[in-house]
Design a protein that fits this description.
- 2 copies of one chain form a homodimer.
- With 469 residues, chain A is α+β, with helices and mostly antiparallel strands.
- Among the domains of chain A are: 92 residues, Uridine Diphospho-n-acetylenolpyruvylglucosamine Reductase, domain 2, CATH 3.30.43; 178 residues, FAD-linked oxidase, cap domain/gating helix (Vanillyl-alcohol Oxidase, Chain A, domain 3, 3-Layer(aba) Sandwich), CATH 3.40.462.
- The first copy, chain A, is built from 16 helices and 19 strands.
- The first copy, chain A, has a 7-stranded antiparallel beta sheet. In chain A, strands 5, 6, 7, 8, 9 and 10 form a 6-stranded antiparallel beta sheet that branches.
- In chain A, strand 17 and strand 18 form a beta hairpin.
- The longest helix of chain A is centred in the first third of the chain and has 14 residues.
- The two termini of chain A are 37 Å apart.
- At the A-B interface, strand 10 and helix 10 of A face strand 10 and helix 10 of B.
- Chains A, B: InterPro entries: FAD-bd_PCMH (IPR016166), FAD-bd_PCMH-like_sf (IPR036318), FAD-bd_PCMH_sub2 (IPR016169), FAD-linked_Oxase-like_C (IPR016164), Oxid_FAD_bind_N (IPR006094).
- Chains A, B: It comes from Falsiroseomonas stagni DSM 19981.
- Chains A, B: One of its GO terms (molecular function) is FAD binding.
């Protein structure tokens, strides 16, 4: 058996082979999506490799190429789309052992891929009074390498945009999947080759990231008469270049009241909510801004001192909080393109009503204040879900389908020739995270080919109820 | 004589009464404008008071009210519109003696009004690795109080917007002009009462300012085939939220070649130029961005190490550099409103050709990347200058007339009732910087009333050639 041959050839590496543990390390939060749950529930690797340094990573890659064993890299497994799930089995490469900060200077940090975001922020805050410009709502568990390989934006994107924006990643150290793996430093526009590629075309071992000032952040929850008022407030806050802020989320009336347990005591019936993070010196400016949009402050807490920080009620955590209360829910990821975003939000709210409760996150895209939707969806069937997606896209709201596990069908919506070309040189045998880059398996794929197809694995494994919390 | 009575009543105060020195301290850079030069050349105070602390300021204000003597506050006198020129004579209040930093914490500084911007930046950089978010091109001489009372934006506004944006000033300590002066702390929306009011409605003695990260800035001069290519590059840079930058100016072909002595060796004939400041870690991203717009790097220098920093070729310093070569030049201040800014720039460039060489500064206004023009103008007559202004405004480019010394006719273009109301309570006798707030002298003024009128002083004083450098 080839996986066993790899294990046998590398006795110095720490291996996990216990099937239950391996299965656990082969999964992420794909089950937010009933579609992915059906498709990916049976996915598991045969073994997990746990390298402690880059030399071990290189040895593992070399052995996998020699024995032609598929390898799927993984950070903390906090993705939502099966990004790090080994569709073709083989070996999972757990990179959390590469957990060293390499260096820090004012405004910039270089770290190994497995450093947890929360540890990295604590380190840079202490050393140079800096912090990551943005992080996903999974900051307390996710790793920096996993965020870059599998994520795209998050808390702080309201100021700095997405990871893809020029300057939000300064360098990536990438190991190629070859018999003699090469160590590459990607910088400048080359970063796009491996950024958000799910580890399909190289293993990120180190990242160099710019830092933002580490303000004392304060969580503020505000109530509004309706979704649009809350959205207009969030937009105005994000457009205020003078106010240091890190988050501006919005949920429709009913969402906080029903699903945000910790916040329920503060939220009056019928109120839409905005969830923001503002730097302490600018707090006094919130009141006039709230008043302009009919808003009222409901709750305030220093982010660092909160038992559960407010960011764990935003972005994909909104869905998680809702799932804790109602396991039948799922979600969407859309853009409401400016300048018609408010009209589109209202139209969708009217079209779907309580079937698709509105959840917005305001960000900057290419320097323009923009509005993402991470709406909740009361799930019935895959057909209806597809219909909801189509209605959004027909109305002019592109959907970054969170019910697809390939790069192209998710956020990308096109073949990324740069990433494909890089895979050709960095993973010529196609062993890295197989099945995630459609263009590799099916170069003729186009975005009008509907819905994901599943090339490998078994979809009929026994369903396991995920334990929340 | 009433001024003498004030002087006699305050023997502990340091006074300047030598007429030549008083005249010098009664002037600013108003002579950039041939219109203001004609109108204001004879303006002078009778004495200059130089307080060393707030108690002395209060004593001077109280005495001036008692003797009904006009008082005009002044920082370093680096304004361009006669902001701090005593139209009605009386006393000039030189606030440069209030030069203490009150306190500094990460992200925020509080300082007395007379602290020089360059000293304030050095202090906060040393203490908390912070610096002012933006500063005028006169950073090396101007004071923070003068910047707020008489300025509006500058180097750094490409990231943080104008002083008026919520959060760019956190607090102002203001002394009222009453028999018993009150000390007020203006915060939040109240800041608008005294921000950019030319000291007409209170004396700013302390300011509280948010700080930006103190990056190691690098000056980069780039050449382009034409003005619009340079402008598109500057806009793209400013829209890149991932790149830490502080400046993106543009000058048409010929401007750098003819007027920027220090830079002449680097600039090829016929090239338009962009002048930018980028933080060191992001320099490697400039090349691909330049290539996208046909640009070439011509010159690079660490801002701190430059003999003359690149920012002293931007904003109003562009005009100063040009005046050093050609004393017949003057300038405009316009907005090219998005999204038609490029079309408007091209139209104006075509309309005026070499009569109005294009000079642009890209900024953010209300969260939107925007384009100011500080064009050079080959001056002929006041009538033609007025015509040039009219043609711009008729084309949809509002002009913030730098050839007017009143608040309303300059940037404001309307009666600011908030500032007027505040003057009623803070300067009930109308003694502060008289003649600068039109609404006080002429409550019926409307923006369609053409061109400034001069209420006081003598316009026929002997002309003195200003010494440049």
């Amino acid at each position: 058996m080839t996986v066993q041959a790899v294990i046998d050839s590398l006795p110095g590496i720490q291996w996990i082979t216990d099937p239950a543990l391996v299965r656990q390390k082969s999964r992420d939060f794909f089950w937010y999506s009933p579609v992915l749950k059906r498709q990916l529930n049976g996915v598991t690797a045969e073994a997990v490799a746990c390298p402690r340094d880059e030399a071990e990573v290189i040895a593992i890659l070399s052995a996998c190429v020699k024995h032609q064993v598929p390898l799927t890299p993984r950070g903390a497994g906090t993705g939502n789309y099966g990004q790090a799930m080994p569709l073709k089995g083989g070996i999972v490469l757990d990179l959390m052992g590469l957990d060293r900060v390499v260096w820090t200077k004012p405004g910039v940090v270089r770290a190994q891929a497995g450093v947890k975001l929360i540890d990295l922020d604590a380190h840079t805050r202490r050393e140079v009074r800096g912090e990551l410009r943005f992080h996903p709502s999974t900051k307390r568990t996710a790793s920096i390498g996993g965020f870059i390989a599998g994520g795209s934006s998050g808390i702080g994107s309201c100021t700095y945009g997405k990871l893809r924006e020029f300057g939000n990643i300064l360098g990536l150290r990438v190991i190629t999947m070859e018999a003699e793996p090469r160590v590459l430093e990607l910088r400048g526009t080359d970063i796009d080759k491996a950024n958000h590629a799910y580890g399909t075309n190289g293993i990120i071992t180190e990242v160099e990231m710019p830092l933002a000032p580490a303000w004392d952040w304060v969580d503020v929850l505000a109530g509004f008469p309706d979704t649009i008022s809350a959205a207009r407030f969030a937009e105005a806050l994000i457009a205020s270049d003078g106010i240091a802020k890190k988050m501006a989320g919005v949920v429709a009336p009913g969402v906080a009241q029903t699903y945000f347990k910790m916040l329920q005591p503060y939220v009056p019936a019928g109120a839409a909510c905005s969830l923001v993070m503002v730097a302490e010196p600018f707090l006094e400016l919130l009141k006039p801004l709230l008043e302009r949009f009919g808003g009222t402050e409901l709750y305030r807490c220093e982010t660092e001192k909160a038992e559960t920080p407010l960011y764990e009620f935003t972005w994909n955590h909104t869905t998680l909080q809702a799932l804790k209360v109602d396991r039948s829910l799922t979600y969407l990821q859309t853009l409401y393109p400016a300048p018609n975003h408010f009209a589109l939000i209202e139209k969708m709210e009217k079209t779907f009503g309580d079937e698709v409760p509105i959840h917005l996150e305001f960000v900057r895209l290419g320097g323009v204040v923009s509005c993402f939707g991470l709406q909740l969806v009361r799930y019935t069937t895959e057909e209806r879900l597809a219909e909801i997606i189509d209605i959004h896209e027909d109305a002019g709201c592109p959907v970054f389908n969170p019910h697809a596990f390939t790069l192209e069908e998710g956020g990308m919506k096109r073949i990324d020739s740069e990433q494909l070309d890089f895979k050709r040189v960095a993973d010529p045998h196609g062993l890295l995270n197989p099945g995630k880059m459609l263009a590799w398996d099916d170069p003729d794929w186009t975005p009008d080919r509907k819905r994901s197809f599943y090339l490998y694995g078994q979809a009929d494994a026994p369903e396991v109820e995920e334990v929340l919390e």
